[in-house]
Amino acid sequence: MSRQVQRAAVLAIIAAAPALPAAASTLTTLYTFDYTHGAYPHGGLIIDQAGNLYGTTYYGGTFHNCRTASSSTGCGTVFKLAPPASGQTAWTETVLLNLSRKDGSNPLSYLTAGSAGKIIGNTSWDGKGGSGTAFELTPPAAGKTAWKERTLFAFTGVTGYDPQGGMITDSAGNLYGTARAGGANLKGTVFKLTRPTKDQKAWTATALTNFNGLNGTNPSAGLLADSAGNLYGTTIDGGTSTDCPPNSSSVTGFGTVFKLTPPAAGQTEWTETVLVSFSYDDGRAPRDNLISDSTGNLYGTTSEGGAYSSGTVFELSPPTLGQSGWTLHILVSLSYGYSLTGLVADSAGNLYGTTANGGAYGQGAVFKLTRPATGQTAWVETWLASFNGSNGAMPYGGLAFDRAGNLYGTTAKGGTSGACGTQSGVVIGCGTVFKITP
Fold first, then answer.
1. Lowest-confidence range among 9-18, 239-248, 298-307, 391-400?
2. pLDDT for 426
3. What is the 3-state secondary structure (H, E, C) of the chain?
4. Quick one: CA torsion of 107, 79, 303, 301, rounded to 10 degrees?
5. For all residues of the chain together, what is the average pLDDT?
6. How confident is the model at residue 4, as a pLDDT?
7. pTM of the prediction?
8. Going by C-beta distance under 8 Å and a sequence separation of 6 or more, which residues neighbour residue 49?
9. What does the pLDDT look like over 308-322, one tens digit per residue?
10. Could you tell me if 255 and 237 are in contact, meaning their C-beta atoms sit under 8 angstroms apart?
11. Cα–Cα distance between 15 and 56 in angstroms, integer?
12. Mean pLDDT, rounded, for 218-244
């Protein structure tokens, strides 16, 4: 298929995409990054019991000369955003860590809550091994203000490098995540970081699986664990599908969803199973985390493909009695927007996510998928908010709920700060943190 034909096909698909209805909700910009305190947040947020928000920025901060950054873009930050005090309206941003080449740089992932208020994260580059790090931040001691940073592990490539998804923990405090590249086949890994025993100092890394193309390539999302200790995740590329997409002349697989089963008693090897290899009609390039419901169904997004070439939202159902294969259902083909993030669900089972562009102004949107009513099968897609540049643009990170049902997230660009430059006379913006009130 020629590139001219491919481009014409994409334009025709987008032109045919339906307009979406908007739902009543309020978008509030809580904070606009100014480069000094961070720039271009790509990961989502986590929320503590006091309502404080924690996240990372890919660039910005006070340390420069990082592996993937120019001398003026900064290595990234870890930040905290505290809600207004009684009688106030402004949220307060605090930089907990200015990342440096020594610590690791350019984090793309969300953070993980550890024990005793600690925060765990990873960086995609730099560190002692030059290939990213896993780090831990400990809250200030009484009377102090500074958080204490400790590098838990420096990636070298043997067990993977460029970790872009967040990590999860088990009951023993071990960490699990994915590395986009490296490993035995240079196509990425799922890794385990084992906490040191009392007689040890160093964390140890183990590759639980090495991707080889057919079982997936380039995992950029974090993992999901079930009650039995099985791990689930996605890869951007790889798998067995070879149908021709309208926007690429050479693709090896369109991504996978995989399951890793822990070793049986007396064994050491984890077992990987590919649950689905995406075709272009199903959606291509799943880039973020999966979620599950009480019956074991998995939900996720693809960033491309589907009926309008803008990605899909899918459900993956476990085998029924007597069957072995999982069943893929496409809940909706996104009509415009390219979803780069995972989903969150409310108590009613409705799903929420973001698109990197699209919406009323073409600069990204937050969408809601309402579960079908009794007797119906179709999910209903609506826009909760559209970004216009000044209130944010390109929401690459996922969403988080607070206890009141409000949604929080980040945009990679946009906002009113001119510190990150302009394009065609328009402020690019260093990114924002936003809140959506239903």
1. 9-18
2. 84
3. CCHHHHHHHHHHHHHCCCCCCECCCEEEEEEECCECCEECCCCCCEECCCCCEEEEECECCCCCCCCCCCCCCCCCEEEEEECCCCCCCCCEEEEEEECCCCCCECCCCCCEECHHHCEEEEECEECCCCECEEEEEECCCCCCCCCEEEEEEECCECCEECCCCCCEECCCCCEEEEECECCCCCCCEEEEEECCCCCCCCCEEEEEEECCECCEECCCCCCEECCCCCEEEEECEECCCCCCCCCCCCCCCECEEEEEECCCCCCCCCEEEEEEECCCCCCECCCCCCEECCCCCEEEEECEECCCCECEEEEEECCCCCCCCCEEEEEEECCCCCCCCCCEECCCCCEEEEECCECCCCECEEEEEECCCCCCCCCEEEEEEECCECCEECCCCCCEECCCCCEEEEECEECCCCCCCEECCEECCECEEEEEEC
4. 120
5. 90
6. 33
7. 0.91
8. none
9. 999 999 999 999 888
10. yes
11. 36
12. 92
* Tokens found for residue 136: 């831990």
Question: Quick one: tokens of 16?
Answer: 């045919």
